[in-house]
Amino acid sequence: MNEVHELVTVEDSSGNVFADLQCKDPEDRLAKADIAISIGRAIRELGLTQAEAAKTLGIDQPGVSKLLKGQLRGFSTDRLFKFLTALDRDVVITIKPAANRSAHRHACGKISVVAP
After folding, report:
1. Which residues contact 54 (CB under 8 A, 6 or more apart)?
2. Cβ distance 39 to 64 under 8 Å?
3. Which of 11, 38, 45, 99 has the most CB atoms in a 10 Å sphere around its CB?
4. Residue 90: DSSP 8-state
5. What is the C-alpha radius of gyration for the chain, rounded to an integer number of angstroms?
6. How far apart are CA 56 and CA 13, in angstroms?
């Protein structure tokens, strides 16, 4: 049997799939995805059904389904934070100087989510 081998090019990830895919606002998208993961984890830890989670979050069950599938269009970061607090989670925001400070006036910090 003859085998055909193709060369595959592999690139290291930047750590942000949205940046790797050249999406608009990749840090914001990654932060929202991380928050949504925390919401899903909280729902599972509390043993809530999607219907029960919907009542707790003040949205409908299809909205919970979209959220858990990572379909985050229409959910602002602020709204996602409110969902976390409704699920008995504390949200702590830390603001500090950027680790990669430079002499450039237009240097930017970054947004990240740290969750257990």
Report:
1. 60, 61, 63, 64
2. no
3. 38
4. -
5. 19
6. 37
CA–CA separation, 51 and 54 (whole Å): 5
Strand, coil or helix: what is 55?
helix
Q: What is the pLDDT along the chain (116 residues), one digit of tens a residue?
A: 667 778 888 888 888 887 788 878 888 888 999 999 999 999 999 999 999 999 999 999 999 999 999 999 999 999 999 999 999 999 998 888 877 666 555 667 777 787 87
Q: Where are the domains of the chain?
A: 14-116
Question: What does CATH list as the number for 14-116?
Answer: 1.10.260.40
Q: Are 45 and 82 in contact (CB under 8 A)?
A: no
Token pair recorded at residue 87: 């699920």
